[in-house]
Amino acid sequence: MEQSVAGFDGSLGTGNGYLPAGSGKSDRVRGGVLAQGVTPAAPLPHPFLRAENLTHSYAVAGRALRLFDGLSFELNTAELVAVVGPSGAGKSTLLHILGALDTPSSGRVVCDATCVTTLTRKQAARYRNLEVGYVWQFHYLLPEFSAAENVAMPLLARGDRKSEALHSACSWLERVGLSGRAEHRAGELSGGEQQRVAIARALITEPKLLLADEPTGDLDSETSESVFSLIESLHRSREMTTVLVTHNMALARRVDRVLRLTRGKLEEVSPEAV
Ligand code: ADP
Predict the structure, then answer these.
(1) Which residue has the CA at smallest separation from atom 25 of ligand 1?
(2) Which of 10, 32, 89, 143 is most buried (most C-beta within 10 Å)?
């Protein structure tokens, strides 16, 4: 699984077609030190994820719907990145490619030394289970199962003992503010509670990459705020890279970096400017 990470040495500068990692808020934090003329003792972190020259097309009514036109970008460890852009631009498709749910027509994604785009089906399933947490707009919980059972699913899927998986699920439910709901059936919970359960399910495997596709898109504004704040605080408390697709510009302003996908191109925009 160890793929060559040649070129992951931070040696690529701008002007090479890449959107380098850390050119947003997190870089500005580091820039506070750099601005005082202090040379950093350690080199900047290597990109955690690198997408190289991605293209993707769907065949629709006998014609190719070309979504991406050679997308290249990098994400650093622990960055919280929003992907914004008009509906139909390909944001969800991009997330699916990063999470090995889909493969691009060409190009590759390397995540933490794994070449995601060349994994076999079995390897991709393992990558998804071990390395990636997903939160979708619609939580996709199993309504007849309890909140704890839903959260425990990824651990059960990888063969952990049920008692241990449920124990871990209960502690995750506590972290997302639902300690009193462990035995409730998922179908009995409110929309915001269900999304909290989905977040706990996404994080129970301690993934390095969290992919969230419109996680607040189906919620009212107050619940949306509390779910985003939960994702934000869980993200900040972990060495996790989070990519969040959102149409909510107020939320996008609170992330480290914003990437806007329009007409097949990705551009970096300042979070304050969205
Ligand atoms: P976004 O998340 O930005 O709204 P999507 O990634 O969901 O965009 O979809 C981008 C475009 O690709 C849309 O026009 C959509 O209809 C099309 N599309 C998505 N999945 C498929 C598919 N499996 N087959 C054909 N077209 C698809």
Answers:
(1) 58
(2) 89
